[in-house]
Amino acid sequence: MAILVTGGTGYIGSHTVVELLDSGYEVVIVDNFYNSKPEVLNRIQDITGKDFKFYEIDIRDQEALDKVFSENQIEAVIHFAGLKAVGESVEIPITYYHNNITGTLMLCEVMQKHGVKKIVFSSSATVYGMDNKPPYTEDMPTSATNPYGRTKLMIEEILKDIYVSDNSWGISILRYFNPIGAHASGKIGEDPNGIPNNLLPYITQVACGKREKLYVFGDDYDTNDGTGVRDYIHVVDLAQAHIKALEKILSNTGVEIYNLGTGVGYSVLDVINTFARVNQVEVPYVITDRRPGDVATSFADPSKAFKELGWKAAKNLEDMCRDSWNWQKNNPDGYSSE
Ligand code: NAD
Ligand code: UD1
Prior knowledge:
11 helices, two-stranded parallel ribbon, binds uridine-diphosphate-N-acetylglucosamine, Rossmann fold, 7-stranded parallel sheet, single chain, alpha/beta
């Protein structure tokens, strides 16, 4: 029996595949390389020394997906495949809705056809919207301010409806806070295309001289130093949470939502200073305007994941900054460095 990982060559997917292989699972990956590179496959092999199957397909290609289910004994699916850039989702909403929503519907349809009713889904803390007060708990009202966030909300609703219609499904919806860091080997990590949208990849590119300075989006928020506060979580901790969520749905039915964060918030300046200190590098920055759509503070109450999955983040901000830099140093041009 195998675990199907959609989007398994992406940032979080690749780290999760490593954890799955290390835990003895058989793995089948599907990805269309829209936002990843084939080199990731060699790196996963290198790290784990294990074999796995890979199909280069778009999850919206239902015939191709059906073939994957026919050729393999899939026991459960971990579903990462999706587009994730907030700004881009505002510019090309149809592409986002089509990729994320249609893709998930097609996947669920094929799963149903083959009697596979176990799925772990990548949702986001973005569903807590602008009005809740952190720490966020899973039962708070949800909302979205952009098409990307709305796709996550809609997929959460779709998955809940699927469970209502057939309660032999086991569904785990994971709301990630801010994943950063990289595998300790420095062989896999985050490799964004073009100018990074997110803080850590921008910092690493400034630190290695690829970009001149970091623009800090606002220092007049109601936070300890005025800059935005987030709950950064090491991608390996996050990957390990997927194994726990998977184990839970393999032996249970139901639909459950879990926050995956550390429960601790750090400001942009905390991150810059920690990164500079632990790596002994300079991170020049200037303060600029707030980024539209940003909240002042976001952090999780991760206690449900601890109670029900027995999972808790183990790595701290220093580990995250060290591992992000280790990846960037070893791969100045990401997977194109080869
Ligand atoms: P990523 O872009 O690195 O990985 C996603 C992978 O899915 C890529 O390899 C891409 O090529 C693939 N993909 C996209 N559309 C596809 C399709 N139609 N068919 C096949 N493959 C497809 O992103 P990530 O950071 O690893 O995120 C994984 C998931 O987690 C996404 O659903 C994302 O929305 C969600 N998420 C990410 C973050 C974050 O900060 N990284 C936060 C919250 C939620
Ligand atoms: C962003 C997305 C969110 C998504 C999350 C994880 C927006 C509005 N939100 O959230 O939907 O779920 O990424 O992928 O894009 N910052 C800077 N300078 C930069 C980059 C970021 O100061 O160049 C600041 C931000 O203002 C924020 C913090 O750093 O305070 C973290 O930013 P980022 O990494 O983009 O994550 P989020 O804002 O949490």
